[in-house]
Amino acid sequence: MKTYRLYLSLALFAMGLFSSCSSSGKEEVQDIQSLPVHPIETMEQYNQQELITRNPWEFHRIGDNFFVFNGVPDCAALVFRMSDCQLLGEFMPKGMGPGECVTPRYAGCSAEEDTVYIYDTSKIRMFKYEIPKQQTDAFQYKLIEEKQSSYNERHMMTARLENGLTVSLRYSGTRHLFTLFDERMDSIGTFGSLPLPIEDDELKNLIQFQGIMASEGNTVYFGCKFFSYLCAYEVRGKDDILLKFAHNYLPIPYTYTDRISIDRQRNIESFRDIKISGDYIWTTFMGKTSQTIDENPEGEGYADYLLVFDKKDGTPLAKFKFPNKGSHICFSKDGKELYHFTVDTNIDVVKVEDLLEIIE
Questions:
Q1: Which residues touch 105 (CB under 8 Å, ≥6 apart)?
Q2: Gyration radius from the chain CA atoms
């Protein structure tokens, strides 16, 4: 056992010093903490403090509307018109009945943005909704179908792909990060090896690889919340899954006594949101130690930075600092504006062209 622990410590230390190589064998990527920081200037700000009273756990643009998933007791999300940020209505009622949700998570939408997929992590069920493009002053939507998964394992998040397959992020205690579902929501396999040299009997002691997901086409992107691990897989089919890249950008400081755990005084917590726009991966980034967040969750539990990566190979390209804290972002349909949901429940509008001048 001592030999195994020594081997594990050395392996984890080596992993912490170097980022993992991508599947194409590229050089190690740059330490994201050492990137120069550029300030962000906002174009304008939507102030909706009377309507939006809490921060979201998800923030998306679908069609011409903002969807704010923020844990209100009656519905999955509040819907706001983008043009003036006025409240249009509620989306998807809470409850145990047909078409109702308990713990809803956004799974994706069609290319035309007239169909939305919601996965309920508690009910283990996928919902498909039609969103009419022509909306009145009252938000309208229609339940098309709901599918109960035959696989009785809960997942943290899901991402639906263009080919109809769904990738779900698993909890700890498993060898792989993801479960793959077919269009009937039947499990057809798992993939995505944990980026740690760990024995099977130690998996139960491993902290959850919680994180955030996004998809574009048939590629799924995953960023870890606790560690600076970012990866992308192209999922063409059950037996045709290609690792595009997998990087760990910062050391993972571990302690090992009777179980594996992170050193919260030194571990840097990382990604809080991820979106794909243009040629880039856009993530909100914490850049703070776990202990700092533990001691002051209200003040430090939000992202300060925007990190941008090349979506082909995960190379970090630029680091920006938000003028206001906030963990969630989305983009206009043409990709020209970035919307940042701040801790004060405002939405800052950022001109993407200004950011691209530094990135490119």
A1: 58, 69, 118, 119, 120, 121, 156, 157, 158
A2: 20
pLDDT band (50, 70, 90) for residue 240: very high
CA angle 225, 223, 32 (to 5 degrees): 85
Residue 28: predicted pLDDT: 52
User: For 322-332, how does the pLDDT look when each residue is reduced to its tens digit (9 = 90+)?
Assistant: 999 999 999 99
- What strands, in cross-sheet order, belong to the sheet with 87-93? 58-62, 65-69, 75-81, 87-93
166-169 and 176-181 strand pairing: antiparallel
Q: What is the pTM of this model?
A: 0.88
Inter-residue contact 272 to 37 (CB < 8 Å): no
Instruction: Give me the count of residues in the chain.
Output: 360
Distance set, CA 353 to CA 39, 43, 63, 306, 360 (Å)? 14, 12, 21, 15, 10
Q: Which of 55, 67, 81 is nearest to 129 (CA)?
A: 67
Structure-block tokens of residue 230 = 């970012």
> Nearest to residue 308, comparing CAs of 271, 280, 278?
280
Distances, alpha carbon 25 to alpha carbons 21, 114, 259, 273, in Å: 6, 39, 33, 27
The DSSP string of 169-182 is: E--SSSSEEEEEE-
Give the separation between CA 10 and CA 4, rounded to whole angstroms. Answer: 10
Host H or E run for residue 308: strand 305-310
